[in-house]
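Entry type: protein chain
Record version: 2
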Amino acid sequence: MKILLRSSFAILFVLATGTHAATPAADGAQLYGQNCAVCHGDSGHGGVGVPIALAAFLSSVDDSYLRETIRSGRPGRVMPAFTRLSDEEVEAIVHHLRSWKSGDVPRFKPKPVRGNAEHGAALYAQHCAACHGKQGQGGKGTGVTFSRPRDLPVIAPALNNAGFLSAASDAMIKQTLMQGRKGTPMVSFLQQGMSEQDIDDVVSYVRSFETASALAAVASIDDEPAVLTMESPYDLEETVEAVKRAAVGKNFRLIRDQYLEDGLFPPEQQSHKQVMVYFCNFKFLYDALALDPRVGLFLPCRVTVVEHEGKVMVMTINPKRLSHLFNNAELDRACEEMFRVYSDILEEATL
């Protein structure tokens, strides 16, 4: 049982973090395929991740922005930090991205923009908050169409994100505001009537997010066990029935129960001391999938009951552990709720 759970967890970890085997040749296309394509698409046209092959994107970001984005990711916003990549490998991926568009590579000066952040806050509330969130938290959902309006090619990025703020220079933010980004909902605010000074003020306000962002602590995945486990005082059959009653009591609909080895071995070879109970709350399921469709990897909900060496154990995967892998702050809250529900079901079933 432990082997099966660890194997499932390892698969989820690879899918969510893009763990790769380093290649000494630093082939950019191969490295992109190993680490980036699962979210951004084989040709960079997006999926869970934003489309990065857009000409308007590549002509508005410099190599420093791409490098830092790969290195730091976007904490809480799906994009993981690829800390295991060497400098040579990061450079190879950046070079591969640049192969999608000919022309000069943007170069932005590191000089800060001087503006009135207070005036910028008022302009931001009027022109930017509808897409990027009142506090710069970004649009809801991921790049998958199920979790965003179908007419939107991208979800508005979080501007208060530590990863974004460390990667984007003031000059780059300013140019994006001035020119917009063709192929996305981001328009030119010069054309919307803002002056260059107004735009400087908005940039200064966005940069002020840096202080609040620095205070946001990210919990370590090591803080959470992979599996929630309790010992039952009842025999296996009584415990299975108790799990069912507890799940129904939490407004879940029972789907089925089956032996853990069902489908893996012929019926006569299956262990009858390992039973999985499947159940679902369809509203919770829909809401969670709308936040991040990857959550479907560990849904519907399930609890496993195992009899081993005279003890009956009740166990389930820990949603709080899994939420770290998906790097989606909105999903963290859903996983926190699911953690409480699972804990209550396990506790009630073993009273």
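Comment: The mean pLDDT is 86.
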